[in-house]
Structures are given as structure tokens and as C-alpha cells.
Amino acid sequence: xxxYILRRVLLALPALFGLVILTFVLSRVVPGDAAATLAxxxxxxxxxxxxxARYGLDRPIMEQAAIHVRQVLTGDFGRSIFSGxxxxxxxxxxxxxxxxxxxxxxxxxxxxxIPLGLLAALDHNGPIDHLVRLLSxxxxxxxxxxxxxxxxxxxxxxxxxxxxxxxxDVALGQPARVTGSMLIDSLLAGRLDMFVDACRHLVLPAVTxxxxxxxxxxxxxxxxxxxxxxxxxxxxxxxxxxGRVRLAAIYVLRNAVNVTVTQIGLLFGALISGxxxxxxxxxxxxxGTYAVQAILSADYKALLAxxxxxxxxxxxxxxxxxxxxxxxxxxxxxxxx
Amino acid sequence: MTRPILxxxxxxxxxxxxxxxxxxxxxVTFHVPAGGSLGIVGESGCGKSTLLRAILGILxxxxxxPRGSILFEGRDILSDRAASARGRIGFVPQDPYLSLNPxxxxxxxxxxxxxxxxxxxxxxxxxxxxELFRAVQLPDPEAALAKYPHQFSGGQRQRLLIAAALACxxxxxxxxxxxxALDVTTQREIxxxxxxxxxxxxxxxxxxxxxxxxxxxxxxRVTVLYAGRVAEGGPTRTVLxxxxxxxxxxxxxxxxxxxxxxxxxxxxVPAATAQPSGCRFHPRCPIVRGSCAESPPQTVTEGDRxxxxxxxxxxxxx
Amino acid sequence: MTALRHIFxxxxxxxxxxxxxxxxxxxxxxxxxxPYPDDAxxxxxxxxxxxxxxxxxFGTDNLGRDILSRVILGTxxAFAVAIAVVVAAMAVGVPVGLAAGxxxxxxxxxxxxxxxxxxxxxxxxxxxxxxxxxAPGIGTAMVALAFTYWPFFARTVYAETRRLRGSLFVDALAxxxxxxTRILFLHVLPNxxxxxxxxxxxxxxxxxxxxxxLGFLGVGAAPPSPDWGLAVSEARQHLPEAWxxxxxxxxxxxxxxxGFNLLGDGLRDAADPRLRRSRx
Lengths: 337, 318, 280
Known about the structure:
Largest interface: A-C, 58 and 54 residues
Mean pLDDT of chain C: 85
CATH superfamily of the largest domain in chain A: MetI-like
Number of domains of chain A: 2
Helix content of chain C: over 70%
InterPro entries (chain A): BPD_transp_1_N, MetI-like, MetI-like_sf
Number of helices of chain A: 14
CATH superfamily of chain C: MetI-like
Order of helices and strands of chain A: HHHHHHHHHHHHHH
Structural class of chain A: mainly alpha
CATH architecture of the largest domain in chain A: Orthogonal Bundle
Mean pLDDT of chain A: 84
Domain ABC transmembrane type-1 (chain A): 95-325
Oligomer: heterotrimer
Membrane topology (chain A): Multi-pass membrane protein
Radius of gyration of chain C: 22 Å
Number of strands of chain C: 0
Main location (chain A): membrane
CATH architecture of chain C: Orthogonal Bundle
Strand content of chain A: under 5%
Distance between the termini of chain C: 20 Å
Radius of gyration of chain A: 24 Å
Family (chain A): Belongs to the binding-protein-dependent transport system permease family.
């Protein structure tokens, strides 16, 4: 198993390296004169030349690329043009908020989506099945930023039962930062009131973000269960006298859920994209709002760093997914030996 | 004759589908004596698998049993759900490669059966499985518990499934062509294993097959099915040596081991939705009479043999 | 044709097709259908933020423009962006997939590695980075979306080409001396067409959704464009009073994307008979 994990990590590296190169190409080629872009519209030629020298833009392109790679590998993303602070520092500050949001959403999507998919498959072509199909197609068609606003409109503005924005009520202050996750930090601080408040702030963003994932998971679980139910070993298990519920909920589901797990890996990309929209609507201080702010302030260093960090997170999640798959189905790890 | 452990009486199974109602089985009658063995033979499509599913209580959705009964140890398992014989009838499936769930350990799959149908604790069950693994001659029985299906060979998987079938101390073992997916050497081993286990434990055997060779080596009695009806039944030796129903006679003539000429039987088994009237074999029968198409044939009983053809004494002219 | 018949037999997929055809008609006839076609640009400050009424069925926005008219006119934008992006992505992705799938050599490896790089980061993030580096605007958004969506076509066509190149008829064609280009474009490509069509249909929905998000974030369409995503973004400052302002453009996005997704689903079932069973 350890070898399998190592293999998967090694497989992910070339794509990540390619991403570093791609960001370099994008930052140097696309804006035309990078130095002029950096210096701003009102810069004098002298200022531009100064910036060119300072950022090494006057050196040969291959040397610039090498410098770029070395900087990225050492976690040096430069300073934000907007705030003047190191980009790496700002990202570390904000990454936990995004991770907390996406993982809670993924958790919701999984614990609701899998049972829904199972129920739909067992009620093949029945009313539950049709309802789940509608939900799964609709869930993928809804624009997350719009859903977020609609939920705000109903639950925060009209009914006033859930907070409108942010991660925690200002009046409560903040728990001491340990992990950056409000849920964990408030528990570590022993502040149950903060924990409850963090949960209340999470409800709307997490639900918005979870919906497309839930739709995908329910859908793939459903088709996986339907396919597995056709298998000979299910017929055998029934003949041998397995209990009906245990057969469906444990034996069939474990086979079926493998397809679903693959989807969870792919979903993570959609979750990150969704997070950008959801964070923007709920003023969630994560990477998404950071990216949007970087766009509005033309802070290309910050934006490229976000791209890279998201790429790394994405790769880690996909390796984790492969490992989970190998744990569910022992044949997976052996096939790739 | 000993008291039958399994008695099937006038069983009919119908399947409702989009193409109309299909008569899969009609008026099927036979029995398996306690400790005895019966083989069910027929071509594919004759209703063998449906018969098995009816006995095991896993008929597909839309299947109905308008007539007949299946008595297991004297209780009707068809109408009385509480009397369901699941777990008390051991089942050995056809394909050992596809019948085990690939993502669960072998031991856990058998434990799941025992959890519902065998008394005792999990620890007892484990000990019992190891003992069974030994009985079916699985190498390294202790370690086998924790292995996954793909780590066994085909023959080993079939041994594992036989052990699973024995896990709840059944009095009847139902086997669905348990050797067709295996190579010839392994076939022989598995058959002798089954014979030995049945004899040692006083198990009755119900064996479904299309292979007369397998039949002759395992079963005392045989019932021949054609298009969902019983064509002929009796002691294996007598039926094989002197078949009476024209279908059996022709079927045996097809079998390469004993073929005088490989005549084959013209035509195919009719579709279950379009069964011919009268005797279902009449469109393919070489000694067909006008009356054969009118009503189902009378079953003739002679001693311990039955044959569903009043004209069975007629010679077949090639 | 059989695919079309299959679609019509599946009521849900037929519903999807109906939505798409309806929306397409609306897009084509937009200037004649919209009650106030000039509201794409003109503003009428005096009648701003009116709730839905007989005169303005969807209400008016912050500049007093009829939301119904703008939703209708926005259909055009949505289609134009989606079609342009999908066609451009196809133009890049399909040849790449064909070339990479045809032979196992270094070029095929390089092409697929490059594809992997583009798939190593979520599409939106890449589109944002690109959209920002060039001047933000609807053109940039389209380039960025096409730039990030082609790998999906490359992947699909790559898999199909690999599957087909092993098939007997390709061997037979190579045997009688047909050139690889000829085999690829005249024989492999038509056989891969169903998979490409499904990918394109799903891609239309995806593009509409992402383009709307870019508009919402301010990297896509710019005012006074009747873009749906932009409208939702403009509406945020007028909540909760003007609930109708974000609601109707959002519903339009939902409906059109739903149409493409349902249609894509139905096409997938029609293209892959193996999956059909699980649907019905």
C-alpha cells in the first residue's frame, strides 16, 4: 500500500510541474510587457526600467523561468501588489477558511448523497427515484452564486434565522488561531458558544456549495448500485440467505461506492470553483475572495499563487481518493503494482 | 423409499413482462429423498435456473407461481414465507468467479450467512468455517479467512463456495452446474469432493446440469426438463441406458461420449412466451402424431420411472 | 436518427430538447420578442425597481429597465458565448485527441501530459487567472473558457480514438492502404462523433454556468450588457427590497443549463446502449 501511495504521488508531480511552467508562461507572455503592467498606467519609463531590473525581467527568458520555478518551490510567491504583504503569508492565512468550507460541503454532499442514491436505486423507476433524478439534474444546473443569494434572501433577510455573511459574529470575537478552522479552534478554546455560532455561519455557504456535489454523488451512487445489483454475487448472496437490508446497505453499496469515490475526486474541482462564488457572496475570508480581490486589483502574483495552491490541493485530494479506493477495493492497488 | 426432503408438486412459474406472460415452468413434479441425489437435466432455456430460484426463494420480480407447491422437510416454502428454507438449503452456484463479492474477505462473506442462519457466536462461526475449509481441502484454512476472492484460484473458489453452502448445516445441497466454469481436472476433483461430503454428512443433493457425464457420476436419479415441463424421470442408470421420451433419446444421441451418430435435434427450444400447444416437444418430435398438438401428454408411470409421452415405445427412424 | 428517436421516447430528455429549442428560438427572435428591445442599453431612472406587474412581468431593475426584455436579450449572449467557446474548444481538443490517440509515441505522451496540466487545476481558477492577465471583458472570458475546456474534448476523443484504432475496420482500411489522416477524419472521427456530441452538449451547459459566474465576479460581460450573471451581481445591492431583480435572470440560467444537461443525459443514454438499462 505504501508503494501504491508513493506511485500515485509521483504520478501527480509532472502535472504540477507543468502547472508551474504554465503559470510562468501566462504571467510573462499574456500581459505583453509584464513590467509595464506591474508599474501601472501612470509609470514613467524610468520606473518601468527599475521594475524590470528589480523583478529580473531583463534577464534571458530561460533564466527567468528557472528563477520562477525556484521561487515557487521554496514557497516564495512574491509580494502582493495590493497589500504589499508576502503572498504566501496571505494564502496561509486564508486557505483554512476555504478548506473548512469545502470539506464541510463535501461531507454534507456525501452523507446525504450516498443514501439518496441508494434509496433511488432500490426504488428503481419509483417516485423516490424520479425525485432524486430531478434533484440531481437540477442541482448541477443551478448557478451557485445565484442559489447563495436566494438563500440569503430567504433565510437571512426575510426570515432572519441565519447570519448573512462572515464566519463568526463580530461580538463574539475570534478563538485563538491554531488550525485556522473556526470549528476546531473554537472547540480547542473550549468555547461552545463560538462553535455553535461558527456552525450557524457555515450552514448557508456549505449547503449552497454542497448541492452540486450532492447531485453528482447521488447520481453516481444510484447507477453504481443499479449496476452492482445485476451482478451474480448479489444473486448468490440472496440465495445464500443474506439479510435484505444488510445486503443493500453494506455489501452492494461497498462495490457501488467505488465509482462514487472517483467522482468525489473530480468534484473537488467543482467545489473549489463553487467556493469562489460562494465566498464572494457570503464574504467568506478564504482563497475565493482572495482571488476575486486579486482580480479587481490586478494583482497577478496573488492570482497565480492561488492557481498553484489550488492545483496542489487538488492533486492531494485526488491522491487521497485513489488511496480510499484502494482501501475499498483491494484489487485496485494490486492492479497497479 | 425414504421420506423426501424436497418435494415439488405441479409447480408452475409465470413471468409477466412487456412481451406478455411467459410460462417458464408448468406442472413440474419431482422429489429428492433424504440423503439421496437427483439431477435435473435440460438444454439452456428449459427452466432449470427458474426452478432453482423458486426453490431458493429468489424468483425475479414479476414472477408468479399460480399453481403447485414446494415442500422442504414437509413445509411449503412457496406459500409460507416463515417456512422459507434460506440458509437451510446450501447453495453452490455455477460460476465461482462471479459469485463472490470481490471487495469482501472470504471469511466475512461466509460469516454474513451464518450471522442470520446459524446459532452461536462469531467466534464459534469462525472456528466452524476453518473446520469447513479443512473439509473442502482448501490450503491453509486459517489464512484463507482473511483473503479476498481474487487471491484464490477457480477451483479454490468453488471449494470456498461449497464450504459456504455447508456453513449452516443444511440437509439439502443445491448445485447449479457447479463445474461448468472450471477446467476438466478441477471438475473431477470438485465432483468427487461433493459426492464425498454428501455421503459423509448424509446430505441430499439436487444437481442441475446439462452434462450427462456429470449426472452419471453424481446422481442416483434424474429428471429431464423440456421447455418447462418434465419429459422423463427415473433412476439415472436406467434412464441413461434405456431412455424412453423421444427428447431424451435424441438428447442422449447428441452427447459425444455415447453418440452413435451426432444427429442433433432439429429446431430449437421454443420461447417461453410462445409455447406450442399440446406436447411442447411436438414440433421437433420425430414420432409426432396428430393428437400431440392438441393436449399436453398423459404422464405414464412404469415402476420408478415416469415419462410424458404415450408413444414412447415407438422407434425413431433416422 | 436513432438517437433522436431515443430522445423522443425518453420524456425527460425530450423535455431538455424542448427547453433548448425554445431558448434557441428566443435567442434568434430576441429583438422582436422583447417588449422593450431598447432596454438593452437605455435607462429610465424614474421607473427603477418596480415590482412585477402587467406592464413589466418580471419587474424593472436599478436603472428602470424591463427585466423580462433583458432576460430575453440575454439569451442571445448566453448562446453566443457558449457556442463560440464550445466550437473553439472542439477545434483545439478534437485534433489533439485524434493525434494523441492514434499512435503511442513521444508526441502522444507530450500532448496528453499537456492536457493533464490543464486538468490539474479547476477550470474556473485557470479562467480567472487568464481573464485577469488579459483585459477583463466578455471576449477575454470566452478565450479563457475555451482555453480551459479543450482538454475535456482532447480526453474524450483520445479515449475514443484508442478504442477505435484497435477495431477491425481500421485494420482493414490500413490494409488497403488508406492514409492515417484519411482514416482519422473520414472513419474514426464519425465514429467518435456521439461521444463528442455528448461532451459538447454538457459543455454548453457548463460554459453558460461558468460564463455567468465570470459575469457575476466582474471578469465577464460588462455593463450595460444584458448578461444574466452580471444582472444577478448588479441586483445584490438592492436586496432584500427588489427580490425579483436577481430571481428571474437566475431562473433563466437554471432553465437553460437544465435543458442542456437533460439533453446531454439523454444523448449519453442513446449513444451508449450499455447504460440505457440503468435509466429505465
